């Protein structure tokens, strides 16, 4: 009887241990399943969601390129591009955070993901579109022919033949003057071209229409005028790394809204005295 009882006791012990083992395995399975479900539920944020979650739109800009991005007399970062970027951030429901970077390093900063977007008068071209995405364009720059206010001889680009045109030799604008037969007088940039023009040492300059508008806004009495322009201008837009489709769309939508509700025009007229979106 003792032997039989001992046998029964051993059998019951085996059953009990097996049952405990089965319960342990079942619990582990449940925990593993719960972990997997949790992983599936927590999906990765897209680019727009990430910006909204952070509460900031990180913006790359130069801060030394007036009137687009520069510091005013008080030292505050301001400018046309800066105000456009600030308004975009406001419409996304986040705060703008500016990262001032020299032009030579601004794309490297984007590549390193130091910022989410560049607002710095970056023109759209095919080379850049290979690596980056662009928003809806927010400004158009056209090449214009500028002469002194009392000049009646030059009315079109064709009239530059045999005339002295002040041009920066590193700019493609000098090609327009040269192709129309102008005698090129080398300048260091827009400001020197204006000095030569107003002093009568050159007859004309082919230059950036936005720079002209800025000058006339700052000095409305300057004795110069635009007599012709190249109809196909260069468009500039916000720049993004590829793969940020949601953020690109949101920024583009904000720019379109600004143009339609009059906000864009107010900013444009503040800096240029004109609508520079077209």
From TrEMBL:
InterPro entries: SBP_3_CS, Solute-binding_3/MltF_N
Residues covered by the Solute-binding protein family 3/N-terminal domain: 56-275
Record-annotated membrane-spanning stretches: none
Keywords: Signal
Cellular component GO terms held in the UniProt record: cell envelope
Top-level lineage group: Bacteria
Major place of residence: other
Keyword Ion transport tagged: no
Cited CDD domains: PBP2_Ngo0372_TcyA
Annotated compartments: Cell envelope
A Pfam family it matches: SBP_bac_3
SUPFAM superfamilies reported in the protein's UniProt record: Periplasmic binding protein-like II
Signal peptide feature range: 1-19
Family: Belongs to the bacterial solute-binding protein 3 family.
Protein name (record): Amino acid ABC transporter substrate-binding protein
Organism: Paenibacillus odorifer
